[in-house]
Amino acid sequence: MPESPEVTAAEIARLAGVGRAAVSNWRRRHTDFPRPAGGTETSPTFRLDQVEQWLRAQGKLAELPLLERVWQQLETLRDPSGPAVAPLVTAGSLLLLLHRDPSVRTELAEQPDTRLATALPKALRRTVGALLGPDAAAALGLPLIAGATHLDLARLLARLTAESAPAAAYEQLLTRYAEANPRLQQPIPAETAALLAALAGAPGEDRTVLDPACGTGGVLLAAAPAARSGQDADPGLAGVALLRLALAAPADRPGPLPVDVRAGDALRADAFPGLAADAVLCRPPYNERDWGHDQLQYDSRWPGGVVPPRGESELAWVLHCLAHTRPGGTAVLLLPPTVASRRAGRRVRAELVRSGALRAVVALPAGVAPPYGVPLHVWVLRGPVPGDDFRHVLLLDAAADGGRERIDRAALRQDVLTAWQAFDEAARTGGPLPADRPGRGRAVPALDLLDDETDLTPARHLPALPAEAAPDALTGLRDRLAAELARLADLDAALPALAATGAAAPPQVGIGELARSGALEVHSSGQGAPPAPAAAPRCSPTRTCRPPPRRAPPPTPPTP
């Protein structure tokens, strides 16, 4: 581990409250700016203590924010070759101890390190074991002895919890983690997680909820109060989810808490075989090729023996969630829109529609959840009940309300829940189905969907808007386009003007030269390059044109 936390140029800019370009200028203009301590030539890192000292000497930093100091301490604990989320498990267990036993703050301030080195890990294991079970301490990887870095982190967290509740402090650290690791799977926003939980039914302490791909546990957190179980292939994320759920429980609630999150790949190694939950909520991994297709050919989770194709990992997760849903229970999944229409998944979709398991497909606007540029779909499924012959699917299109900055989340939630609850009430009681909403929603008979494609994209099956509504729709589209153009104009005005310089244009290198030097590999797809065109006749001003010489065909080998 590094002797001192290291920070990037972007993090230095965050500390000083400036843009990243200002840090680059400081490095060029000030010879006493700290030298890089690690990283790469294009993305160097600097020792935090040296950077902090330099910023303070320049009058650019009064005091390092406490949250930033905690984060840098976590970076000190992180193993460069290990997962970035691992230190968050340590921080979460310390916050859970502070949440359940506030007197630990006093001990951290008064007791010497020699005593705390063994006393703090014992207290952690005792608290975690009482709340989460005897195996939780080992699953979280809690240390047997606390080193100086762990003790410094514990004292910083004690100061942080004096400003905000432990659960809120942990959420701040998770937000900081998501900002520092944008390439990893980003968490679902709280509003979207709450929508998924609401579609699964009213919460209650007597309900059971499962998320087989829980990530950091945002959807399970939204399903409270309930007995919640989760699983994730990443042990670190599973530990974070478990600690988030424990921190959300009241400090005076006795253990063990009704939460259980385990590590493992739910498709290949299901941690909860035989569990039939009241609600299954899931945002599964997208576009996985290696999900276990070859090993799971004869799995009992595939209805009618219809195995999801190798390229349809999302449908494998749909069937897994349905297998864990009790009869009459609800499964809600957040999926990419292509799952509704890819030809390879037609047989699985048709089986879900034919059996009555699929009850609704809702097209959400782009921006409700990562990836934010894609209008994701919500699938709602019902655990099959013997004798239930209801065969309709609610198709609701809210994708036109897109734009991450323009979404009225409260109105979207109300619209989706109202449409689903009216449809679900009709399905449960045998009452009349809700009326069609042109351009918005419709209850479609299953037979209308069972064609050669079984395309479940809502927009393909909705009645068109009446002629009198077309001008209003066109006006709305024009207003949205005008708003986008105005926003782009504002962004263009904010860009700095480029000053004309007399510098020569940078040298250019052709693709052929890059390929010859080995800096570029050229790969051809398909059946190979097309045949070269026939050479043109060779001519000259003083000679008669002659066709190019023809090569003789290779001799035919003699027949034995």
From TrEMBL:
Residues 520-560 are annotated as: Disordered. It holds the Pfam family N6_Mtase. SUPFAM superfamilies: S-adenosyl-L-methionine-dependent methyltransferases (SSF53335). Residues 535-545 have a biased composition (Low complexity). Residues 546-560 have a biased composition (Pro residues). It comes from the Bacteria. InterPro entries: DNA_methylase_A-5, SAM-dependent_MTases_sf, Type-I_RE_MTase_Subunit. GO terms for molecular function: DNA binding; N-methyltransferase activity. Residues 168-424 form the DNA methylase adenine-specific domain. This is DNA methylase adenine-specific domain-containing protein.
